[in-house]
Design a protein that fits this description.
The chain is α+β, with helices and mostly antiparallel strands. The chain is built from seven helices and ten strands. 34% of the residues lie in helices and 21% in strands. The longest helix has 19 residues.
Length: 255
Amino acid sequence: MEREEAIEKLPNSMFYWWPRVEDCGIPMPKTTLVPVDFDEYLALVVLVGDGMTSALTDAVFERVDDVASQYPRPVFIRTDHLADKHHWRNTCYIANDNYENLCNHLFKLVEEFELQTFMSGEVMLGFAVRDYIRTNPFFFAFHGGLPINKERRLFYERGKGIVCHHNYWPEDSILHPSVPDWKERLKETDDLCDLDLTNVVYFAEEVGDHLATPEHPAWSIDLMKGADGQWYFIDCATADRSYHWAGCENETRYK
């Protein structure tokens, strides 16, 4: 299968959606996609399975390192499908420019991709190196010490615009919080002023307008508020593959 054909069959890959939205005129982190060909992907799978490195895996890691060296630290790195934010310190968050540390993080990202997509038929097309968005975390959670910030998930449908939006983190999703009053702090992340609401809806509509097609008409669009007070578009996925808050009238709309 040609790479272009594979990309068209994988709308949740950043190689599909990033080129469609990167110039839509809203705040988002600088991003460089680092492609991985099919033979390299298979070599990465072997590495995850039995720990065997090869010239192909070394080439991939060196290519990512070359791109990452052009970004300040910390830097955010993910696969084209996922970031595995729950294991933050060991996956997507790269605090220094140590090459061995970077390789360990890339290994963990590939491992998580394989765990989540085993038998699905999906393939990893590469990595994304991104500017790290500095935030003012309300607390930290999960084994990886993920900072919990003001984040919003909005659902966009072609011809309708934004149909609903929710706080990114439901209470029952939080594990291993760093502070005892985390429930109160989590509620604060759901407190948006009028300007916040205006911005997140406008930004998400801009992204949705660039993404929605007859084949993929509905999307979830994630935004996060930075320490500078700006909202940034950070991720998206087709609505049928996205978690939806329980109790929302649209909960089963896209399943």
